[in-house]
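Here is one chain, start to finish.
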Amino acid sequence: MRAVDREDMNTTHDSPACDLQNDLSGVLVPRTLR
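Its structure:
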């Protein structure tokens, strides 16, 4: 994966946009599905 994804995972709680990016990368599922 990209190094940027790791940073996005850390800022996931703060930025909802990161959730979308992670979801597309398959790294993390959006909190909305939980």
